[in-house]
Amino acid sequence: MKPAQFEYHVPDTLEGALALMSQHADEAKILAGGQSLVPAMNFRIVQPGVLIDLNRVPELGYIREEGTVLRIGSMTRERQLEFDSLIAKNTPLLHEATPFIAHPQIRNRGTIGGSIVNADPAAELPVLMIALGARLRAKKSSGDRWIDANDFFVGMFTTALEPDEILVEIELPFMPAHTGWSFIEVAPRAGDYALMGVAVLVRLDDGGKCENAKLVYLNAGDGPVDATEAAESLAGETLDDELIESAAAHASDKEITPFGNVHTSPEFQRHLAKVLTKKALKQAIQRAGESQ
Amino acid sequence: MMRTISITVTVNDKQYTREIEPRLLLSDFLRHELGLTGTHVGCEHGVCGACTVTFDGESARSCLMFAVQADGYEITTVEGLAKDKDNLHPIQESFWEAHGLQCGYCTPGILMTLVPFLKQNPDPTEDEIRHALSGNLCRCTGYQHIVDAVKLAAEKMR
User: FRET pair for A148, CA 20 to 30 Å: which of A209, B6, B17, B130?
Assistant: First the structure.
């Protein structure tokens, strides 16, 4: 047996899952897609006393449109995100980035909520949640609350969730009109964790100037890194090559703090960040222009 | 003593009921409890793809699931592909004909990745084939003959 022993619970309703969480909060782990948790358990890096399996709670798997937002159940598989027409239409950034999440076999099982709560700094979904301005709904037996994605990721593999809370829903505002997007990452092999990656949004005004921009990086610090200063330097301006160059330099030199790993040095990650930012900004600007 | 749980799983159209510990991985369940050793175990942490099976018709890594999660579900392993040794699945035939394997360790996982892939994408480009195979490591072939085998299989199955 690879994993250590645990007590297994498989509720069939959210209410049942929440009751189990309030009872076992201190020693319980949620089993969502299991694509990060199970390897960690196989290595015995993680040894939860209690495992609460959400895979038989059908009410947590959905993607629906409501006014100007998408509502996505936390147990929705990444593979469903990839092929969903509502996501493609209303949040094309997420549509474009989903195929970069690991491999098809992993996306068949992995869930949006699982990846967000795992809060791996090298993962795509936390970065996309910040870029898209998501709100995350956490629930426990005694009530629920909404947490802005900006306040959700508090450190490496660490979130603002309380021990007895379950992430149940992700709310994504539709990307506004005249918004261009781009997602680029560099990985040693397709599907591996990326050495560096960036999600970019650019919204142009009627005159073709930048109204606002967003630059969020993965594997660039102890969580998703939102380069707000570089983004602000673009607001209100005409985005020429010189400005793009200086924003990319500022984000990659001053705002990200990559650690390096066995495949790469921090210097190379900064170099990649700069190159990818320029490429992504240009693509986003072009797309924003096309949608005018 | 650890509490065991009774599960009933359909593997390759045959139903099995077993008492298992919840921590038993699906890959180990298939191999040790059912004796279906065609599902290979390589890295045991979701990197190599050798243990890929189809779960409810979709490819999945059996080392990243617990057997209890399969209770009531349908699984196909590499043993479920050929009717008998004289009637291989067209994907198996193609791997034979195009030399898509050398040592064969990664092959079951690759075949089980390709079954749903070719169903969803019957006429794939080389780029799409390579992306589909990105979650399966092969240390012998250099992948070229595997890609050739997939192209051949797609032709045969159209």
Answer: A209
